[in-house]
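Re-running the complex after MR caught last week's input typo. The corrected sequence lines follow. Everything else is unchanged.
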Amino acid sequence: MSLELSLTQKPDVPLEADVISPDVMAGLSNKAISALEVFHGNEKATIGDFFAVKGDGTGDGAEKIILKGDLSKVKHIGTNMSRGRISIRGNAGLHLGAYMSGGEITVAKNAGDWVGPEMTGGRIIVKGNAGHLIGSAYRGSQTGILGGEIFIHGNVGNEAGNTMKNGLIVIGGNCGDFAGVNMKAGTIIVLGHLGQRCGAGMRRGSIVSMNEAELPPTFTYACDYNPSFLRVYLRRLREEGFKIDETQITGRYKRWSGDSIEMNRGEVLMLAS
Amino acid sequence: MIINGIQIDDTFAEAFPMRATRLIITGDTKRWAFTAANSMIGFSTSVIACGVETGIERQLKMNETPDSRPGMSVLLFAMSSKELAKHVLTRTGQCVMTTPTTACYAGLYSDKKIKLGGALRYFGDGYQLSKQLGGKRYWRIPIMDGEFLVEEYAYQVPGIGGGNFLILAKSRGMALRASERAIKAMSKVPNVIMPFPGGVVGSGSKVGSKYKALSASTNEAFCPTLKGLTHTELSPDTESVMEIVIDGLSEADIAAAMRAGIEAVCELGPAGGVTRITAGNYGGKLGPYHFHLRDVMK
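Corrected-run output:
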């Protein structure tokens, strides 16, 4: 059993739909789901105003929610989600999976900025590209994601993993500037190219790049070696559908320590060419 | 029961509950993975004096290990959770971490944890790093050859120790040849180890001794040199006895290993010099698991 929401009217302005979550929709009838409140800009509206709802949330109906249509203007899908699955068959808007603690969100196409901000668990998979600030802290927050996994198969914008404290972010394509800025712990793996100043201000944690990248001058070269932990990670990523070459598993990585303006316990690992 | 001309006694092997775990040890090459595993299983033939019984379960292919390197699967058995935890930790620290290029992972999972990397990490003296992936935590301990990766926990499960059978033969060479053949066949069975050197016991014991301090002593009824001096279980033409002891994760695993070993011995036929196959028990007083040879071989 699954619950299906098909977009019938594309929002003119962003639609704030944090009610689209297994936690909220569980146990609700079709009618009650259609009546859930959303904000269309600054106007109150309902799910039923924008979506055709098929099925209901009784039993385990809300454990898998399928969203159809171009949802690039639908924000906050899966906010505070703790269980179940959301499958988005098109694009997803901003703030996807904000604060989520469990369950899984998959996006067949692209996602906007702020994928998985301050999440503590669960998993978000975006098959296409994502915007800026994936897996990051909201402005003013001290800590970014505390756990969970964000897998973006395409490219992402700037500040991926800003202030993250745990968890795993994997970017199959290229990553913008300031990846892992102010990072406290956790792991960011970029299979494409890293932008400028990655790891600036990082205290702990790992940023892995399969290509050479320009680091802040406050990073220090340590050695080049083949880290066993990375082999474990890359093997897992291969199972997740990322293209991992054998040379990436068996190759040697240059280890840079930083950022020395902070604790200097972080690392950037770059596959040696 | 007679199989291919070899008598199988109507008796049983008596086994007892233990606590068990499996570790996966990897290295840059098969040689170093084996070296670490072989070091870990040193001095661990019997809980009587070693506190733990261990063995290499099998060699792992690169695509079977967590880090895609050559690996070894090691099983460890002890009489208590505490004893098992102690040996897992000390042997990983002293035998695996010290072996160049290695890493160590849990090889089975349960809700009973044994601290592994969670304790060894302190060797990193504050420079250790933790990584979490798929619900597991790993510790990266900086060491002189690079980095030692070890999983936070190993996990323990119920196990069974003391499955056994005895090979009685017309000469020591014949007993040894039959034993080697049995071990070769048994090493293909998963979830078991034969913890004694080379898998074979040359000095099988009985429980107790005339000396109060000893909990085990020579099994005189099966010693060929004592025929005529004391009660013997040996026929006049039996000149050597070797025992194979099996620890396993379940009764079915031990029975499968016993069957494989006895079948391999019986394939030799009478020409191989084996006169009889029997098993060691203590009248059913030692352990709840009884492996009746004739049931095993049905």
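None of the earlier attempt is carried over here. DSSP finds five helices and 17 strands in chain A. The mean pLDDT of chain A is 96.
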